[in-house]
Amino acid sequence: MALALPNDVLQAIRAQGAAEYPHECCGLLLGVYEGHHKRVVDLWPVENEWTADIALTEIEDAHSLRDRFYIPPKAYLRADRAARGRDLEIIGCYHSHPDDRAQLSERDRIGASGVGGGPSFSFVVVSVMDSVPGELTSSLLSADGSAWEPEPLDIKEI
Q: What are phi and psi of 8, to 5 degrees?
């Protein structure tokens, strides 16, 4: 499966990552499934609501908004309602990695396991080094949830 991402959406993700640096930014991708492709139509930016109380690992209190993000269920519900009103679906999510590479982590995999969305749900990450956005990648969670699989990105000029 490939993810078609309009250039303006790509730039919006990069801008949000820079604006929220040194914290991780996050949000949802609204779009449509078209056979073996997904097409992003719009973003649904979400405030990063991570706290140490959201214990997905045993050492959450050793971390901060700089290396953790959390999209609460109410944000998914609001985005889903808005998407359906436009004949769209939530087809993925995105977040930034401040001062790190654009590769999803083991912690990201653990968090993704609880998201649902199935093996076609895209997980996009953008690297933001010293407040400057850089590489952006997309991945899919394997069917058994044990590993990340790279997802081809098709950047569209619109």
A: -65, -35
121-135 pLDDT tens trace: 999 999 999 999 999
The total of structural domains in the chain comes to 1
pTM recorded for the entire structure: 0.87
Cβ burial of 144 (10 Å; 0-12, 13-18, 19+) is exposed
Helices (H), the chain: 7-20, 73-84, 106-113
Bridging pattern class, strands 2-6 and 153-156? parallel
**Which domain, by its residues, includes 145?**
2-156
- Amino acid 22 reads P
Going through 23-111 in order, the beta strands assigned E by DSSP cover 26-34, 37-46, 89-98
Supply the CATH number for residue 85's domain. 3.40.140.10
Write the pLDDT tens digit of every residue in 87-123.
999 999 999 999 999 998 877 787 776 666 667 999 9
